[in-house]
Amino acid sequence: MDDLYKILGVDRNATDADIKKAYRKLARKYHPDANPGDKDAEARFKEISHAHDVLSDKEKRKAYDAGPAVYGAEGAGGFHFDPSMFQQARGGGGYGDGAGFSDIFDLFGGAGGYTQTRQAAPRGADINYVLNLSFEDSLKGVSTRIAVDKNILCPDCGGSGAAPGTSPMTCPDCQGRGVTSRDQGFFAMSQPCRRCGGRGTIIQTPCSRCHGNGQVKARKKYTVKIPPGIKSGSKIKLKGKGQPSPQGGLPGDLYVKVNVAPSPLFKRRGDDLILTVPVTITEAALGARISVPTTDGSISLKIPRGTQNGKTLRIKGKGAPRLKGGGRGDLLVKIQVVVPTHLSKKQKEALESFAALSQENPREKLGAL
């Protein structure tokens, strides 16, 4: 006689809860649905089911613990693994009180068709919407209205699809379950009902407005709040504002993708803004204080003496608002030294005089030039 406690992996002092927990774990692992075509798993599942059948029943367990003489005489070991127990389990009671078969089938999501409950209605489709936004609005944040073309529940029939004054009737093929079962040898397999399409109901007199679909086209308007500092490509979800479910389930969501127009002045890098500012040779060489634009207006910026072309000066807190953590990024001012292309006679003479006075050779490090 096999040790039923060892089969379930529990000791002889195990409580009913311990036995049920062990059974659920093993049954889920070796269940035929999880191991299609695996004969060893099928045999193991039979052993597990037999062990649970005996140990979860107080009288059978008492006889089993008393020993082979009592157990055999009581007939408690006469467990027979019959495929019909799956049919019983479909009804929710399952095989043996407390056997937990309905729980096991729930774990597999009804795979294999072991539940008679109607399949969950599919969720409605999501909607994607592109919102074009100016660079300035992306930084300060705005609240805007958008218009979306979508389906809504038919106002005449309330989404039932049946003509006003009538109601959908229970599907006679699936009895309202939305699925039909057919035997496949060892198992009973379920599939969506062909007659009602899984709805569980059929419409005898369709609504004239939606023609039985339960939905009609409409244009809906929604308010979208754009947070300050949003980046191009970001998405904002409006939960439940997508397409309604075709079978009365949860609606989909509306995803608003933000497309930020480029700025003629600023480029964005993370939370920082980059601004290219041209300066004259004199300003770069002698230093100067110049006015530069920011998203909040112009400010004064000091150009250090001897500033080279391409040097970047940082202005703290004048970048884009941070979506997380608060505060703002920085404004990075990239200096562009502008070389004049048209010189007057006096300007040319002044530069020649400067060159004569300057003995510097910027290419000296390149070698003997």
Would you give an account of this structure?
The chain is 25% helix and 25% strand. With 369 residues, the protein is an alpha+beta fold. Strand 10 and strand 11 form a beta hairpin. The chain is elongated and about 120 Å long. The N and C termini lie far apart (101 Å). The strands form 6 sheets. A 4-stranded mixed β-sheet has the order 10-11-15-14. The protein has a 3-stranded mixed β-sheet with strand order 1-9-8.
Strand order of the largest sheet: 10-11-15-14
Structural class designation: alpha+beta
What helical percentage do the residues reach?
10-25%
Mean pLDDT across residues:
83
Count of distinct strands = 15
Q: Any low-confidence stretches, pLDDT <50, length ≥5? A: 74-118
Number of helices: 10
Run of helices and strands: HHHHHHHEHEEEEEEEEEEHEEEEH
User: Which descriptor suits the 3D outline?
Assistant: elongated
